[in-house]
Every structure is written in C-alpha cells, then in structure tokens.
Specification:
The chain is mostly helical and 465 residues long. It is built from 17 helices and two strands. It has one domain (3-184, 207-461): MFS general substrate transporter like domains (Growth Hormone, Chain: A, Up-down Bundle), CATH 1.20.1250. It has helices spanning 3-32, 34-41, 45-72, 75-93, 99-113, 116-127, 130-141, 143-162, 166-183, 207-212, 215-244, 250-282, 286-306, 313-327, 329-341, 347-385, 392-432; strands at residues 452-453, 460-461. Strands 1-2 form a two-stranded antiparallel ribbon. The longest helix is centred in the C-terminal third of the chain and has 41 residues, at 392-432. Keywords: Membrane, Transmembrane, Transmembrane helix, Transport. It is found in: Membrane.
Length: 465
C-alpha cells in the first residue's frame, strides 16, 4: 500500500470514528436528562424503559434492510443518508411536548443510526487485513466511550444551565456537516484485504441462510444480546442511580457516568485492541477467549460497585470503572471475529443480523426489565416501610436493587457465550476463507480444527493443501 493510500485509509477511519462518536453522543442524551424529562412529562421508570425498548426495536429492524443495502450499494451513501436523518431527528427531539411526541421523534433517530454499524464495520473490513482489524475496530469504537464521555460531561451542565432541550439542538449541527464529508470518502473495494479473489460485483445468493450456517456467529449473537442487556441498563439508569441513591446533582451524576461509561473505554478499547491482535497472532481463537475472561472478571466488580452503601460515590465509581473497563474489551474481541468467520460480501448483512438480535433481545429488554424491576422493588420497599405512596427514597432503593441484579448476571452470560463461540471459531474461520467464487484461486481442500488463522486477510495457515 502506498503512502497516499495509507493516508486515505487513516482519514476514512477518522471520519468513521467521528460518525460513531456522534452516534453515541446523540443516543445518550436522553439518559443524561432523564430526571428533568421524567418530572416534566410525569413518567415512571417503566415508561422510560419502554422508550428505550421501542427505540432499540426500531433500530434493530431498520438495520436489516440497511445492512443489505450496504452490501449492495456504495456504503458511503448509505452512511451519509443515515447521519443526516438521525441529526435531523435529534434536533426535532427538542421540540417534543409530551412523552408520545418524544418517543416518535426518537424512533426517527433510531432509523438513521441503524446505518452506522453495518456500513462502517464492512468498510473497515475492506480497509484492514485480519491481523490489524482489532486495533482498527478499537479506534472506530472509541466513538462509543468518547461520545458517551462527552455527552455525560457536557449535556448535564448544558441542561442544568439552559434546560434539557438545548443539548438536542446543539448535537444536531455536527451531524449535518459529517453527512456531507462522508459522501466524499473513497468507497473501499470489497474483499481487497483477503488472500483469495472475489467477484464482488456478483450478488450473493441466500445470504441469511449462509449466515445461519455459521455456529460461531450464533454464539456471538447470544453474547451480544446479554452484553447489550447490561449496557442499556447502565446507560439508561446509571445517572438516575447517582442522583437518587447517592444524592448527587445532575451535573455530578453526568461526570460520574462519563468516567464509568466513557473514560474507561479509552483504555479498554486502545489497549484491548492491541492485546487482542497480539493474542490472535499466537493463539488464533484467543480473541474470543480473552473477551470471555474479561467479562468473567467484570461481573463481580460491577456487582460490588452497584451495592456500595448510599453516599459512597468514590467507592462506587472506582469499582464500576474497573468493571466497565473490562466490559469494553468485548468490542475488540467480537467485532473482528465476526469479520473472520464471514466472507466480505456478507459482512454488512452479518453485522445487521448481529445487531438485530443484540438490540431486540438485549437492549430491547435490558432497560425495560431494569425499569420494571426497579418499580417492583420500589413498591416492595414502600410496603415494608408502611407507606401509602412510593417515595423518592423507595425509588432509589428499587433502582439500586434492580441494577445490582441485572448487570452482573448479564455479564456472566456474555462470558459463557464468548467461551462457546471460541470453541467453534477455527472451523468457521477456515470455512470463511474457502473458495466461494469461480474466480477464487485458492484450493478448496481445507483442514479442520488444527489449522491456525494467521497472516493478512485471515489466511488459514496449514489448511490450504
């Protein structure tokens, strides 16, 4: 690759990072301003959980056709259209006059944001070879913690000083700019980083049936559902937990959430991506095993942080940050593994299918189940206190009890699913590198589990005879 080409690839990755940054910034705003919206519209935690569930269902469903479009059309155009739509709907969120209007506008945000993951991940797969993808995806995924960090750090202050509507207007402006920038990007050649030749112009037949035949992908899908269950419980309710249970202001709750859910990702994704690629070089299925170990260690740390006594803000922040840092290792182990077991013409579709189940089963239920349990435990606390109405103190106890159950259990399920995915990885990675086109020059004879996936583009060492 020439110096000019390398510069172009780095610039494209930077633009994709900025889009992902804005994606998670815009998505996180409602969580930061949850309390003022709840009070103005007269909501309870179940209603906010429903808001998160409906948003994620629309996001997941819209991702399927957008994923197929990304495998058929120029991904830069699909991405530009998505950024424009979600930015427009973000601005419209500030105009909501009740819960229903706010819900409908946020659904528009979900449709636009559904274009980001399939198109961007597919582009990265065609920009970087397999042995460098974890680091590239780690840099792209820095948009998640940095977007969340910036949102939690800035939006709380903006809302406290200018009202909860102002952040939505401000966040929309860079989106319109990025929608124009992405149109000028070079469209990567599909399969450019693979070691076999691919007829990228010919549509692939039975795409969903092909994906359904990859066992590793199904275990990864299960891991994503469990992972997002915990993520959306934390993203939706951690600021509210800090306000209710630990008695801090909205701005301070935003800062704590920025540290736990954002700052930890800087180390988790950069260091994690480097470690994941190093482990893969020595141990082909090591990325997924590494992810499983990290999630297994994260569960007790998160539990310890969530059950800290009321008012122990420092202790809760330290423990939750340590657990969430390990939680962030998930992305750099799973996303490159999907690229390794799926051939280039199906990668956007595979990511869309993965995100469909991740959001329908995980994010779709994570926030609403946490909200339902919170209200149930709050009612129970009220009855035990002998009161006739649910007090703010009861709501604090209910939310703390709910989160301390949901988040650690989801982390453990994620760890188990990643371990099971690792057991099937070598066979499915070998199959993905098989001759799938008439133009493929590689041999069709492959070895089994003893082969090692190494080299650029996922070459299967010892499997080509």
């Amino acid at each position: 690759m020439t110096a000019t080409a390398r510069t172009g690839v780095k610039y494209t990755l930077l633009v994709l990072f900025l889009i992902n940054f804005l994606n998670f910034f815009d998505r996180t705003i409602p969580a930061v301003v949850l309390e003022p919206i709840r009070k103005e519209f007269g909501l309870d935690d179940t209603m906010f959980g429903v808001l998160g569930t409906v948003f994620t269902l629309v996001y997941a469903i819209a991702g399927l056709p957008l994923g197929r479009l990304s495998d058929r059309l120029r991904r830069t155009r699909v991405l530009a259209g998505g950024v424009f739509v979600w930015s427009l709907m973000t601005a419209a969120s500030a105009m909501a006059w009740n819960f229903t209007s706010f819900l409908l506008v946020r659904l528009g945000v979900g449709v636009g944001e559904a274009s980001c993951a399939p198109a961007a991940n597919s582009m990265i797969g065609d920009m970087y070879p397999s042995n460098r993808r974890a680091r590239a995806i780690g840099l792209f995924m820095l948009g998640l913690p940095l977007g969340s960090l910036a949102c939690f750090a800035l939006v709380g202050w903006i809302a406290q000083n200018h009202g909860w509507r102002a952040p939505f207007y401000i966040a929309a402006i860079p989106g319109f700019i990025l929608a124009l920038v992405v149109l000028a990007l070079r469209e990567p050649v599909r399969g450019e980083q693979e070691t076999y030749k691919l007829d990228a112009a010919t549509p692939i037949d039975r795409p969903y049936r092909r994906l359904a035949a990859i066992p590793t992908l199904w275990w990864i899908i299960l891991s994503g559902a469990a992972y997002n269950f915990a993520v959306y419980a934390m993203n939706t309710f951690l600021p509210a937990l800090m306000v209710r249970y630990h008695h801090v202001g909205v701005a301070q709750a935003g800062l704590v959430s920025a540290v736990v859910l954002g700052l930890t990702g800087l180390l988790g994704l950069t260091l994690g991506g480097w470690i994941a690629d190093k482990i893969r070089a020595a141990f082909p299925r090591g990325r997924l095993v590494f992810g499983a170990v990290c999630l297994l260690l994260a569960a007790p740390l998160l539990y310890a942080g969530l059950v800290r006594s009321a008012g122990d803000v420092v202790g809760a922040t330290i423990l939750l940050s340590a657990g969430w840092l390990l939680f962030f290792m998930y992305y750099v182990t799973v996303y490159p593994s999907v690229q390794d077991v799926v051939e280039p013409r199906l990668r956007a579709t595979a990511m869309a299918v993965y995100f469909f189940f991740q959001y329908v089963l995980g994010a779709g239920f994570g926030s609403v189940v946490t909200g339902l349990l919170s209200d149930r435990y709050a009612t129970q606390a009220m009855q035990e206190a002998g009161g006739g109405a649910i007090t703010e103190a009861a709501r604090a106890v209910g939310l703390q009890a709910s989160m301390s159950m949901v988040v650690p259990v989801a982390a453990l399920v994620t760890a188990v699913a990643l371990w099971l995915a690792a057991r099937r990885f070598l066979t499915d990675a070998a199959s993905a590198n098989r001759c799938v086109d008439p133009l493929c020059r590689a041999s069709e004879k492959f070895g089994g589990e003893r082969g090692a996936v190494t080299g650029n583009g996922g070459t299967v060492q010892g499997e080509l005879q």
